[in-house]
Amino acid sequence: MVRMVSATELKPTTYAWPVETTELRVKAGRHLAVNGLDLQLGTGVHGLLGPNGAGKTTLMRALSTVHRPSGGQLRLLGEDATSSRVLRPLRRRLGYLPQHFGFYPRFTVREYVEYMAWLREMPKAAIPGAVQRAVERVGLTARADSRLKALSGGMLRRVGIAQAIVNDPDLLLLDEPTVGLDPEQRVEFRTLLRELGTDSCVVVSTHLVEDVVAACTDVVLVDEGKLVWQGLPAALIQIGEQGGTGDSPAERGYTSLLSSHRSAS
Ligand SMILES: Nc1ncnc2c1ncn2[C@@H]1O[C@H](COP(=O)(O)OP(=O)(O)OP(=O)(O)O)[C@@H](O)[C@H]1O
C-alpha cells in the first residue's frame, strides 16, 4: 500500500529538541511542584521516573499546555509554549493521556475517540480512518462499539491511549499509561511505545522501572521538581549493578541515584 506523505511531514525540522525547558517552574495549587527544571528531550521514548510527589504529573500538565508555567522557559516543538498565540496550532500536534481522564460513560469507544479527534481539529475526512487505526493499535477493535461504562479499568486506560494517539502527535504525553493493564497488554503496549518513539517524542510517566527499561530510549529521573539524572536505560542498570536496593538492577539504579541525590542536597 502506498501512503500519502503530507506537506507537514516533508517540512524540515527547525528545532533541535521537541521539548526544551530552562529553569522551568510550575505550581500545583500553591506548591511549586516543578522547581527550576532544565530538560532537553529529543525523538524517542522518555521514561519519566520519580517518587510520589516528585512533580511528574505537574510537569506533564505543563508539557500538555493544560497548566501554565509560573516561570522559566518552555519550548515545545520549537514554539514558545508560554505564548497564548501558539497554543492552538501547537495543541493539534500534541497527544495527552492525563493520570485521570474524564469521559462520557454513554459514548462508545469509537464515539469518544472521534470526539477527541474533533477537539484536536483534525480534518473531518481523516477522522474515521484515524479513529479505526488508533482503536486497532490499542487492541480494542472488538469493543469499538461498546459503551465506555461497560469497559474494565484496563480497557478504559487503552481507550485513553487511543485518544492520545489518534492525531499521530509529534509530542505524546502519557501519564501512568500502564495502570490497570494486564501483563499481556503491558507487553503489547511496550511494542506500541517503541513504534511511536521512532518518529515522535514520547514522554511516559510511570512508577514501573521495568517498563522504562523495556520500552524507553531515555530515562529522566526527577525529585522535588528538579532533574536528578538523565541517561540511557543501560546506564541505569549499570549503576544498579554497583549497589542500591530493589529487585532488579534497574530498580537498584533508581534507588541508588535517588539516595545519592538526597544525601548531596
Ligand atoms: N492542587 C494541589 N495543591 C497543592 N499541592 C499540590 C496540588 N497538586 C499537587 N500538589 C503537590 O505537588 C507535588 C507534586 O505533585 P505531582 O502530582 O505533580 O507529583 P507526582 O510525581 O505526579 O506524584 P505521584 O507519583 O504520586 O503521582 C506534591 O508534593 C503534591 O502534594
Automatic annotation (TrEMBL):
User: Where in the numbering of this chain does the ABC transporter domain appear?
Assistant: 19-249
Ranges of Polar residues compositional bias? 256-265
Gene Ontology MF annotations: ATP binding
**InterPro entries from the entry?**
AAA+_ATPase (IPR003593), ABC_transporter-like_ATP-bd (IPR003439), ABC_transporter-like_CS (IPR017871), P-loop_NTPase (IPR027417)
Region span, Disordered:
242-265
Q: Which family does it belong to?
A: Belongs to the ABC transporter superfamily.
Query: What protein is this chain from?
Result: ABC transporter ATP-binding protein
Q: Which organism encodes this protein?
A: Paractinoplanes aksuensis
